[in-house]
Design a protein that fits this description.
188 residues; alpha/beta; six-stranded mixed sheet; 7 helices; 6 strands; 44% helix; globular
């Protein structure tokens, strides 16, 4: 079983992408869980969302305390939250940042795999403005999930509430996040 903890701020879409990731893995035939955790609902407040993905039935129904992957959608949360808390030593810290993995390692003290993706830049260039979808692409790359299947699910989900133009922009952002994480892993 893989456990993932998303760190974002209210309005950045951490909950949304954790739900989409669950749907992607459900389509792969996996057992999944997706759930958020947040205090007073307000834009900008720290938010956590979680995923569990397994080949077997998931019998755990609690928070995720020792994730395999911690995803930081907003780099400022490295200063106010502790995204590496409980992160497995051989896990992956995935951060939306312009900084290098070495800079993030010095800042967090995390000794495992660190992948840095400039999801803000990707989202801006794609025309979406939200870093959550590029970070979803990065998580899909880290998990080794089929990217075509992931794109199909992302399209199906986003088509329900966005114009075709925005769906295409989000798919471009997803692909760029996927490729950035894949490239970072190959160059590590």
């Amino acid at each position: 079983m893989k456990e993932i903890r998303w760190h974002g701020r209210g309005g950045q879409g951490a909950k949304t992408v954790s739900q989409i990731l669950a749907q992607i893995n459900l389509r792969e035939g996996k057992h999944v869980q997706s759930f958020p955790e947040y205090g007073p609902e307000r834009s900008g407040a720290p938010v956590r969302a979680y995923n569990r993905i397994s080949d077997e039935e998931i019998l755990i129904h609690s928070g995720v305390y020792h994730p395999h992957i911690a995803v930081v959608i907003d780099e400022s949360l490295l200063d106010t939250e502790n995204p590496t808390e409980g992160l497995k030593p051989d896990g992956t810290l995935l951060v939306n940042t312009k900084r290098s993995p070495e800079e993030i390692r010095a800042r967090t003290g995390f000794s495992g795999e660190i992948i840095c993706v400039d999801a803000n830049k990707i989202a801006q260039e794609a025309g979406t403005g939200f870093p959550n979808v590029p970070m979803l692409g990065a998580v899909v790359a880290v998990l080794g999930t089929d990217p075509k299947l992931a794109e199909e699910e992302l399209r199906a989900t986003l088509s329900k509430r966005l114009s075709e133009e925005l769906v295409e922009k989000n798919l471009a952002a997803f692909r760029a996040g996927y490729e950035a994480a894949k490239g970072a892993r190959q160059n590590a």
